[in-house]
Each structure stands twice: as C-alpha cells, then as structure tokens.
Amino acid sequence: MSDRYQGFTQSPLGKLLVKNLGLPAPMQLDRYVDGAPLVDGTVLVGGCGRLAESLPGLLDTLGIASTQTFAEDARFKGLVFDATGLTSAAELEALRAFFAPVMRKLTSCPRVVVLGTPPELVEGSERVAQRALEGFTRSLGKEIGHGGTVQVVYVAEGAEAAATSTLGFLLSPKSAYVSGQVVRIGAHGTTEVPAVTDWTKPLTGKVALVTGASRGIGEQIARVLHRDGATVVGVDVPQAASELQALMAELEGDWLTLDITGKDAPQRIAHHLKEKHGGVDVVVHNAGITRDKKLANMDESRWASVIAVNLTAPELITRELLDQGVVNEGGSIVGVASIAGIAGNVGQTNYAASKAGVIGFVDSLADELEDGITINAVAPGFIITAMTAAVPFATREVGQRLNAMSQGGLPVDVAETIAWFANPASSAVNGNVVRVCGQMMLGA
Ligand SMILES: NC(=O)c1ccc[n+]([C@@H]2O[C@H](COP(=O)([O-])OP(=O)(O)OC[C@H]3O[C@@H](n4cnc5c(N)ncnc54)[C@H](O)[C@@H]3O)[C@@H](O)[C@H]2O)c1
C-alpha cells in the first residue's frame, strides 16, 4: 500500500524526469512524532484584530515559539495572520503586505493560518472582506508548495480563547494532509472551553468509541486517541474479531464485535458503554463500506448496504446514545464523510449519497446538542488503505496526484483530525466538516 511513484521521484532517474517533464513531485510530509515539540520552528504572528494581542500567549501555552518581528535572515515554520480587523475590500491589501515578503522565508512543510470572523455573523463590507479570506487561503494553499498547508479559521466574537486547540492542530505536523480548509469556532454559540492541564494527553480519563476499529483508518484513530490518553472501545464485525481483540489488547482498551447495522446494535453499544464504562466521551463513526456500480447497474442490495452501514447506523447509534444519556457532558461525536460526498464520484451514487448524508447529520445535530456535546465530520480524500488498494491502478494514480500535495494521505492524518475534534478544548469547534484531502482539486 506504499506510494511507489513517490519513492521513484526521489531516485536519481525520478528526479531527472520530474525536472525535465514537469511531473508532480510529492514531497515527504512532516508528521507528528509522539513526544516531539508541536512545532519545530518559529511562528510569525501578524495582523491587527481581536486576536492579535492574545496570540503570542496562546501559542506559548502550547509551547510554540512565536515572534511579531520579521527579520530579513529569519526562517519561519508557520505564519498566523489576524484578519478579524479587516472591514472592507480595500483593507485586504494588509494580507498581501504581510504575506508577500515572507513567502520565501518559510522552512519545509510550513503552516499558514488566517484568522477571521464568520462572515455570516457580520454585515455589509465587513462581510465582503471576511468572505474574501476563503479565496485568498485556498489559492495560497495551491501555490505554497513544499508540503505547506493554508487554512482560514473563523472565530466568533467572544470565542477568542477557544482557538488554542485548533491553532495547535493546524500549526503542527498533525495537520499534514489538511489544507485549504475553512474552520469555524464558536459559530454555534459555545465560546467557553475547559482548562487543559496536559496538552500531550488531553483525553486522559475519557472513553472513546471507534467503529470499524480493526484496520485501516479506524485502527489509526484508535491508536491516536489512545496516545492522547483515552480508553478506546473498538467495534467491528465478528469476522474481524481476532484483529480487533489483538489491537485493543495492545492499546489496553475494550472491544465489542457486532455488525453496526444489526437491529439491536444501538442498544447493545449503549448498554455496553453504560455498564462497563459509565458512559462515553468520544464517539467516532468510522465503519464504512463501498459497493460501487454505475446507477444503471445499481441493484437494491448494493444501494441498501452502503446506506445502512455508512449513514443509518451512525444516525441510530447516535440517537440511542443521546436518548439514553450515555454521551457524557462535553462529549464529541465525529462522523466520517468523504470527498465523494462533496464532489461526487462515478460509480458511487450510493456511497456519495451516504457520505453527503453524514454531512447533513452533522448540520442537523450541531444546533440541537446540549451539555456541551459537539458534532463534526472529517471528509477524507484519497487515503492509502485496503479500501483504496482495491481501486484500479489508473484511477488510483489520478486520485492520488490530483491534490496540492500530489500524494495520497495516510490513515493517521484522518486520525489526528479526529483527535483535534475530540480534544475537550475543542468544545467551541462544532458543526464543522473538515476535508483531509491534501487540498484535492475536486469539489468546493
Ligand atoms: N480510504 C479512503 O481513501 C477513504 C476516503 C474517504 C472516506 N473513507 C471512509 O473512512 C472510513 C474507514 O475507511 P477505511 O479505508 O479504513 O476502510 P476499511 O475497509 O479498511 O475499514 C473499514 C472497517 O469498518 C468495518 N466495518 C464495515 N462494515 C461494518 C459493519 N457493518 N459493522 C461494523 N464494522 C464494519 C470493517 O470490518 C473494517 O474494519 C470509512 O467510513 C470510509 O468510507 C475512506
């Protein structure tokens, strides 16, 4: 399941062909190593809005070194620009003035974050200026290169202190394959965050349910949530029992083998979590299947099985957990959507409908949830797993290269994004759908 093309481009012949034929040259992305500093370098902070003053202190909490001074010989690992003060189109010049001189002063895999105000919460020319940030960051994401990422984070007024976990994620190698994204903080009302004593183990004492945990993306989600301190309860089908049990034994977690589409699955999961763990803090609906066929050849069973596993089961399980009061205060529910649910894909009307439905599920619950419970979704692009290994070679190659990083992502990239949602300090991160797609050229 390795990326052989990427390996080839790093050989002498590969380097020559990349240079002379202008082929995509995927670079080795930085990924987070447990125990390493969150950011290996200095972050330059600029702009003048609601957040500018508190930013250095906020980054300091995370152990991230920052400066507000641009020295000619300095190199930066990250750039954070507070654009919340921009209230008109003319003022957008401040973006160019800050970024243009520093774009050649970045180290490898740099991180760029532009902070704004949710456009829907302001009026007139301020709304125009704030909405413009999306186009700016998405374009910069496509031109930054060197494994760099660029995002806009819209922070509602009053939620300034709730941005710490998001900045920690987006400035670190944990967000290696997340770029061109728009994140909203505090847009659904919550602006308060609980204090985190240990940022390396924010899930200490928490219980996390992960469906489809025996392999692929689910396995990495279980590993990363365990790394962050959670007790993981893995769920998978009975056929995957031995892999699931081995993994959960390694992670000192717990397991439950069942088909999530089973009639009594929601009740069994709720009962298990309540009786054995006293509730659950993090719910990750990762289990998913594909049964591809063009619509003209789509039989009822292909249609029904995909909708049942990917959409109906997460809905019913979530409803049961909420109705039974099994989700603890401040809990986090995470759906796993897909780029197919945003851009569509040939042969995947069933799958894309199910994954777009997951996004609808997030939208519908985000305003409804109580007790500080949040719901968000990840939408992975091309992630190298057993699921994508089954894709025919030519389609797979196109799928892997058609993004700003010219490569597929790894399961850990999806897992890290979920761990950011699950962090108790992300309590104001609600109702977001974040693509983990290396800024794929397809879809919005
Ligand atoms: N791999 C990608 O590129 C990609 C892209 C977008 C979205 N996704 C989504 O990410 C999730 C994980 O994908 P993956 O690539 O790791 O897939 P995978 O096939 O490797 O793993 C899926 C897991 O879900 C389990 N599962 C399937 N049906 C189940 C059921 N009825 N009850 C309980 N468990 C069940 C499987 O046994 C397996 O362990 C899926 O929801 C998938 O749609 C993957």
Structure in words:
There is one protein chain. By secondary structure, the chain is of the alpha/beta class. The protein folds into two domains: 31-185, NAD(P)-binding Rossmann-like Domain (Rossmann fold), CATH 3.40.50.720; 207-436, NAD(P)-binding Rossmann-like Domain (Rossmann fold, 3-Layer(aba) Sandwich), CATH 3.40.50. The chain is 37% helix and 18% strand. The strands form two sheets. Strands 9-8-7-10-11-12-13 form a seven-stranded parallel β-sheet, with helices on both faces. Helix 10 (300-323) links the parallel strand 10 and strand 11 (327-336). It is globular, with a radius of gyration of 21 Å.
Quick synopsis:
This protein is α/β, with parallel strands linked by helices and about 450 residues long. It contains 15 helices and 13 strands.
DSSP strand content: 15-25%
- Order of helix and strand elements from N to C terminus: HHEHEEHEHEHEEHEHEHEHEHHEHHHE
Total beta strand runs: 13
Look at the helices and sheets and give the structural class: alpha/beta
Q: Output the number of helix runs.
A: 15
GO molecular function, one term: oxidoreductase activity, acting on the CH-OH group of donors, NAD or NADP as acceptor
Domain Ketoreductase: 206-381
Family: Belongs to the short-chain dehydrogenases/reductases (SDR) family.
Protein name: 3-oxoacyl-[acyl-carrier protein] reductase
